């Protein structure tokens, strides 16, 4: 993933003005767009209750489950709220091609000062925990069990930070080990990490 975004919500917007919802509530938003902010679809109609539920997710860092029939606007609803708040939004389609490695990250061998070193490239989950992004797990019911297990760790709010520290810690150990034992130790540590997650 790209480096951290280093942005914070810096404006408040009115629900009445932006979503046409009868409420005096104001929500945090960003004054500037970036590459992760979806495009606005001006014709999108916001259902009041669903909008309030999704907005509370944005406002209070809550997980929101949106359920409904095919084509009723679930995926676009979240995107269109993000678009209006200038809130970065990443959609992960949980079809069979998404793997744990895509979500968590993996070691890559890179050149640094002319030397080959292993570097842990963070996947979508650790990156999202460290950045203000709305992470949309689309087609949630289609996710593979091994992938859903990792996602579950992120959904449990109180373990999220622990999960991140664990990734970072193992990452560091991995790097130090690499200096002493080269690539093999990287493989051992990665294995240890997966076992940790399975506990
Ligand atoms: N309330 C709405 N206002 C305007 N357009 C809508 C609305 N709801 C759905 N649409 C349009 O209908 C199409 C389908 O919406 P979307 O893909 O978000 O549905 P979904 O519920 O996620 O479907 P699926 O269950 O197949 O994932 C999109 O083009 C979307 O823009
Ligand atoms: Mg959808």
Low-confidence stretches: 173-199
Secondary-structure-derived class: alpha+beta
List each distinct ligand once: adenosine-5'-triphosphate, magnesium ion
* Average pLDDT, all residues: 79
Spatial shape? globular
Number of H- or I-type helical stretches: 8
Q: Main sheet: which strands, in order across?
A: 1-2
The number of distinct β-strands equals: 6
| End-to-end distance | 27 Å
Counted up, domains total 2
Summarize the helix and strand pattern as letters.
EHEHHEHEEHEHHH
Radius of gyration: 19 Å
Strand content: 15-25%
Please name the defining characteristics of this protein.
17% strand; 47% helix; alpha+beta; binds magnesium ion; disordered C terminus; 199 residues; binds adenosine-5'-triphosphate; two-stranded parallel ribbon; 8 helices; 2 domains; two-stranded antiparallel ribbon
What do you see in this structure?
The protein is 47% helix and 17% strand. It is built from 8 helices and 6 strands, in the order E-H-E-H-H-E-H-E-E-H-E-H-H-H. A two-stranded antiparallel sheet has the order 1-2. The two termini are 27 Å apart. It has helices spanning 15-19, 48-60, 74-85, 100-104, 124-129, 145-155, 157-181, 183-198, and strands spanning 11-14, 26-29, 89-93, 105-112, 115-122, 134-138. With 199 residues, it is α+β, with helices and mostly antiparallel strands. The protein has 2 domains: 11-155, no CATH class; 164-199, no CATH class. It binds adenosine-5'-triphosphate and magnesium ion. The site of magnesium ion has 3 residues, from helix 3.
